[in-house]
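Quick one:
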Amino acid sequence: PGGSLRHRAGEVDGAKGAAWVDATVARLKSSGHLVLSDTTAFGLYDHNLVALNQLHRDGRPDTLWRVRPRRIVLATGAIERPVPFANNDLPGILSADAALSYLRRHGVLVGRQIVVATNNDSAYEPASALAAAGASVTVVDCRREGGVQAKSGIRALAGRAIAAARGRNAVQSVLLDDGTALAADCLLVSGGWTPTVHLFSQAKGKLAWSDQLSAFIPAEAIEAIGVAGAVAGTVSLSETLASGLAALGGVGSASPAPRSTGEERTLGVVSLWPKPKAKGRVWIDYQSDVTAKDVELAARENFVSVEHLKRYTTLGMATDQGKTSNLNGLALLAAVTGRAISDVGTTTYRPPFTPVPFASLAGARRGSMHAPVRRLPLEANHRAAGGVFQEYGGWLRPAYYGSGEAAATIHEEARRARQSLALFDGSALGKIEVIGPRAAEFVDFIYYNTMSTLKPGHCRYGFMLSENGVVFDDGVLVRLDEHRFIVSCSSSHVAAVHARLEEWRQDRFGRDAVYIHNATAQYATLTISGPKARGLIEGLDLGAALDDASLPHMAVTAGRFAGDEVRIARVSFTGDRSYEISIRADRAEALWARMQQEGRAFDAVLLGLESLMILRAEKGFIVIGKDTDGNVMPHDLGVAGPRTKRTGEFVGRRSLFTEAASRTDRNQLVGLAVGEGEAPLATGAHGVEKSGDRLRSIGFVTSSYQSPTLGRPVALALIERGAARHGQTIDVQHLGVLRQATIVAPCAFDPEGSRLHA
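Output:
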């Protein structure tokens, strides 16, 4: 902290500038204020959100801060401008202020024979300091009367300007506009000061041209934002301190107010802009290698808008975003086109002000925090029961239970689930509430299926599509009352579905019409599935009518467990009679224990996700992202009704009628059966047929398991024209091995659906 007070002369309340800065910072820290050094405010966004990048010098990655203060004071300073002349990019040419900073902050003398080119008073302090340090200094001041009184040891040439720098690999001499040559091993330039208005402009602040400063400065005030110091156009330290107090806008106070007690700075700047048709290479943008001739060519090509100039020449498009070059470029464009600089205007200032490392933007999202796994509320209970955990869609969930061989254990869970009863923790399923007077209209727009006709207390399975008509997610939609729905989406898609719902709500519906609330983490969902499911749920004393007339398949009702409200939905992902009980996550442990206790009488088994995958595959139920890919549309899955019958608009509708969507050779969902006694097909194996001398893929296996209930393998696949090829035998190839399989219906177990009511 401290800016130019760290290396320029200044005195506040009788103390040297740097000492006053140190004392002030120490006082702020001791008072409990947060002082972030080595930190850059690189962006000012909507609603006064300030983005900061903090550099650490101990090897840690940079830190990204997002701050939304009550009041912002922009004291961003000003940047010393280069001076235009031929060969102004030679090594050994640098700004006068940089040379002073090297000397006073680091004890580095930048040259022995120094020429200083300037149009303002600020260059004389560096010249004097360098002369006092032993350098031979000549000041070339383009002003006719020169500037402030040059101190002893400095040679001052008034009314002269640099025409060119000379040297092969570094500056060796400079040529003045009158033909005089001066030997030099370093050339310092000071062409005036450009206020750093980037953050102010990012906040939609307007700029005004100042002839006195030869620069753009903030014009109209912005609510909750103040400007202070050089960015506001101040020159003297007294003006700077006064502007700081004014910029606070009544927030906080300084008592007594700090006062400048030393010599005051002056500027007295005159214009020193690039001249049209100048001889030699006059560099305007050092990073993008834009010369004065490039700007003149752009004007001749009629790129007279400053934004067009920027894009035609790349002026200001390098990593410094034109901090040192833009104003010189604008001035030259103004001169070539016969306009005032204020009429030319500026380009748009965009964040970031300085480059920001990706590590900073990533924040804490690195290592195990890059994509942290989500955990079930009952994880400890599952581990105590012998659960073996794996990651599924970002969730850590039990794959199976027990210490035995994995495949045998998984098959035993699936077999017992079909024979008696299974208990399954489905808490990872999405539970996103859609509430409001236009909620029914909203879900109709979001879903491929018509959902507004769903009666309260009932559920409906449906697809969500992406805008290109591809199946994005599937799941059950629950309607609790006229204006309240619950979207039960795939566990791996909860965040994406939530973001999608919110995006479309903002696009088409106001918050007073539809409100989206993701309640997934607030509720645990515990599932009872199997032929004996009704017996167990009746033993839980949930205080709800559970007979088939009161709670048919795809219906929902409310009950209570131990005084807590529960939601009971009769939906199934196994094909057997099933009940999903949703309860507050912090009350789920008691319900889970009671379910296990009651389940002993029914030979209940804890069901892991691997055995659940077998059960759903036997029924032909799909998993989005496993049994679908980025091309699958709903009619490829056998659900074509809404595509042809719906008249209202919904997400993805138009894409369902494109040429690609209407092709007759699309891959379609089917089942695959192999010969008796054969092993399951490999997931990912391709259906193939001969095309000339080569094999051509006609689709692939998406899911494949050995079914312990059926005693044979079952498989799902996406096969070209599959719906019309039931009964046909195709070749299936995997790792060079060719096998045969017969195309069958996706559902291999209980196709009549009678077990839903067992």
